[in-house]
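Help: why these numbers?

___
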Amino acid sequence: MPVLEAKDLSKQYKLGQHLVHALTGVNFQVEEGEFVAIMGPSGSGKSTLLHLLGGLDSPTEGNITLAEQSLAKLSEYKATLVRRHNVGFVFQFFNLLPTLTAEENVLLPIIIDGKNPRKYEERLANLLELVGLLDRRKHKPDQLSGGEQQRVAIARALISEPAILLADEPTGNLDTKTGTAIMELLRISCNELNQTVIVVTHDPKAAAYADRIIFLRDGDIVEELHPGHDQPLSERLRNIMSTMERLES
């Protein structure tokens, strides 16, 4: 079983008097431990798709199966529980609570879920070591750089061992060097934790870290690339950029 499956996924919404077709019959699967990037021109439906995959919004038609559970067949309450237990989110603007320390921000999903944070002390330490913040664990967000705050957000997304990690433009608010470090960290989470990762990005360099790149245009998947990490980065970037140019023309 794939860890996530989208079947005949469509999303429509009204914008004034107009009906916008954000997604039109999207189908794809994601396997455990796979790193998938979603790309496409502005307005192609990338963020809409990510929100549907994470259960933050409901499709107009179609279904999402997450961790072997069909979200369409669940009540809103049960769908919320499935999302809470199986999905970790990383956003462009970090979304850390300013009054909490780094380690408290990381443990927040555990506390919200009513679990004992003491039982997660070993995993907390391992994740803080993975993201390179063991020595910054007592610092609050305003004492951390943007890259460090995003590392805290990644550790927070991973603390509850989610089936899938969803990242919406995780490097969009960072400089090039820091963005590269964040993408390398997400790649490490796949390689060392067998974490499934889906990233929405407009950045070809970020997408080049993925095992597979899905390209959207006008709300549908129009192409896929498998960059192949045995290829030089320059070749991977050239293939990604040429595909993007073709879709935007």
Notes: The beta strands are 4-15, 18-30, 35-39, 61-66, 69-70, 87-90, 164-168, 196-200, 212-217, 220-225. The chain has eight helices and ten strands.
